[in-house]
C-alpha cells in the first residue's frame, strides 16, 4: 500500500515543479526564441555563446557566457574577432507577443569592453519578439 501511495505522490510533485517553471522566452536576430537560450545574437557579427542563466523567470535574469565581437576593420569579412569570456547578459521586463511572454530589454556588460563597445552593448536595448520580424 505504501508503494502505491508513493508512486501516486511523485508524479503530482513533478507536475507541480513543471508548472512552476517560468516560460518566459528571449528572442534575438536568429529568430529562434527560447527559454534560457545558450546563445544570443546581438548583430550579424557579434553575439554571446555558452550562456548559463540565473534567476530566469524573475524580473531580471542574468546569463554569463562568451562574447564574440567582430571588429569589422578594415571590413567585417577581414575583421578580427575579440573573444571575451565571462560577459554578462542581463534581461528584464516581460511583454506578451503572439500569446507568449518575452523578456523585453537586454544589456551586455564586460570589464574588457572598449569605450565604444560599452556604449554599443551596455545600454538597455529593446529585445526582439517574433512580430518584429513581420
Separation of the first and last Cα atoms: 57 Å
Q: Tell me the structural class.
A: alpha+beta
Main sheet overview: 7 strands, mixed
Number of strands: 7
Helices and strands, in N-to-C order? HEEEEEEHE
* Strand percentage: 35-45%
Low-pLDDT parts are 1-15
Query: What count of structural domains?
Result: 1
Total helices: the number is 2
Fraction of residues in helix: 10-25%
Structural shape: globular
Task: Report the mean per-residue pLDDT as an integer.
Answer: 86
Q: What is the CA-atom radius of gyration, in angstroms?
A: 19 Å
Structure write-up:
Residues 1-17 form the signal peptide. This is Lipoprotein. This protein has 134 residues and is an alpha+beta fold. It has one domain (23-133). It is 19% helix and 39% strand. The protein contains two helices and seven strands. It has helices at 2-20, 115-121; strands spanning 24-25, 40-41, 47-54, 60-70, 81-97, 100-109, 125-126. Strands 1, 2, 3, 4, 5, 6 and 7 form a seven-stranded mixed β-sheet that branches. The chain is globular. The model is unreliable at 1-15 (pLDDT under 50).
Throw out a few tags for this protein.
alpha+beta, 7-stranded mixed beta sheet, 7 strands, Lipoprotein
In short:
This is Lipoprotein. This protein is an alpha+beta fold and 134 residues long.
